[in-house]
Design a protein that fits this description.
It is built from six helices and twelve strands. The protein is α/β, with parallel strands linked by helices. It has two domains: 6-54, Phosphorylase Kinase, domain 1 (2-Layer Sandwich); 61-229, Rossmann fold (3-Layer(aba) Sandwich), CATH 3.40.50.150. The radius of gyration is 17 Å and the shape is globular.
Length: 230
């Protein structure tokens, strides 16, 4: 007799779950808006609760957790400034984790992409879409408060500078900065690990304490996630 899927909390990260279905084991978050699909996700109902599979090949934090990330600062009630939120695939899982008491300020420069985020934000109610350039944090000072977490996923050569500029304005003391580094966007001529070290050095010189770096291969080759603290 086959058993149905089972859900269990992640031992280290509150709001993150494991879904065990036979031999398959996937990361998941508990849907904040049951029945609403934020993208073409796979959902599983366990004991009357709807869990959304968190795919590591589409969401870099999921890849980092599966690759052994130890510092994951997104938790219930977190206030997050998300630079490069795009259409909200990863942000929707952050939304599940932070719940109704948390908030995500999502900055996106592309008007076309931001339009895809609007129905997700409207349904979830804890995402604030902002059409602006992350290089100019003063543009959204009238909307964004001090935050607990700064999450940066902008594939630009100056992504470390973008992080530091925003951290100086919005990241509270003791808060965390998380950056998804795309090596080829910074310097295609250097080995990825050298690029990651350059980013770490820049964050350190900018006053942040680097806590860890996790390579995202094989889910996202030539990408790494770096976590730092202010």
């Amino acid at each position: 007799m086959s058993r149905g899927p089972r859900a269990s909390p992640h031992k280290s990260f509150k709001g993150v779950f494991w879904i065990q279905d036979g031999r398959r084991r996937n990361l998941a978050t508990l849907n904040l808006v049951p029945g609403f699909r934020s993208y073409d996700e796979v959902s599983v109902v366990v004991n009357g609760k709807e869990y959304r599979i968190w795919p590591p090949r589409r969401s870099k934090p999921a890849a980092a957790i599966l690759n052994g990330l130890k510092n994951f600062p997104i938790r219930p009630g977190s206030r997050i400034l998300y630079l490069g939120i795009a259409s909200g695939t990863t942000a929707s899982h952050f939304s599940d984790i932070i719940g109704r008491k948390g908030v995500i300020y999502g900055v996106e420069i592309s008007q076309r992409v931001l339009r895809e985020l609007l129905p997700v934000a409207d349904a979830r109610r804890n995402i604030v879409p902002i059409l602006a350039s992350a290089r100019r944090p003063e543009e959204y000072a009238h909307v964004v408060e001090m935050v607990d977490v700064l999450y940066v996923d902008v594939a630009q050569p100056d992504q470390a500078e973008i992080l530091l500029k925003n951290a100086g304005v919005y990241l509270r003391r003791g808060g965390y900065a998380v950056i998804a580094v795309k090596a080829s966007s910074i310097d295609v001529t250097l080995p990825p690990k050298k690029v990651y070290r350059l980013v770490e050095d820049r964050l350190t010189r900018g006053g942040l304490k680097v806590l860890e770096r996790v390579d995202l291969a094989p889910f996202d080759p030539k990408h790494a996630m770096i976590v730092a603290k202010k």
